[in-house]
Specification:
This protein is an alpha+beta fold. It is built from 5 helices and 6 strands. Strands 4-5-3-6 form a 4-stranded antiparallel beta sheet, with helices on both faces. The chain is globular and about 50 Å long. The N and C termini lie far apart (about 55 Å). The mean pLDDT is about 85.
Length: about 150
């Protein structure tokens, strides 16, 4: 991870975010997962949030962001969550009606950690592997048949 510069700062900030939909519903199967990914990437572009990695298993999200000193991680989450929920529900009102009757796509909580220089590649590989890991777990039968 290289140092970044602007007029008055030299910095190296990376964050790993994880968050879930309300009630942890498994709603991000295709085509919804790809649509949400596009929505979040557009938000990143519009708000100058450098999204390095983004993976969306069916019931949670992992995102690695390269940050700037002027924007707190909580501000990043506020922007991403609020705009993505509004746009997702605009595109898919049937999902809102079926799963999110309270009108909220996301829980209030999220996980965020800073990524040190040595850990960047490890975290990026972990985020990239989340979808594969989730699919592998789903392929294992959870319960034996009785008869």
């Amino acid at each position: 991870m290289k140092l970044q510069k602007n007029t008055h700062h030299v910095y190296r900030l990376m964050y790993h975010f994880v968050w879930i939909p309300k009630y942890r519903h498994k709603v991000f199967c295709e085509p919804y997962g790809e649509a949400l990914k596009g929505i979040i990437e557009k938000i990143g572009y519009d708000y100058n949030i450098d999204i390095v990695e983004l993976e969306i298993p069916v019931d949670h999200l992992h995102m690695v962001v390269r940050g700037e000193p002027k924007m707190a991680p909580s501000d990043v989450m506020q922007v991403i969550k609020s705009i993505s929920a509004r746009e997702f529900f605009r595109r898919y009102p049937e999902i809102k009606k079926r799963y999110f009757w309270g009108g909220k796509l996301w829980t209030q909580s999220y996980f965020v950690e800073t990524i040190g220089n040595a850990n960047e590649e490890v975290i990026r590989a972990y985020v990239q592997g989340q979808l594969k890991e989730h699919k592998k777990k789903e392929s294992i039968p959870q319960q034996f048949d009785l008869f």
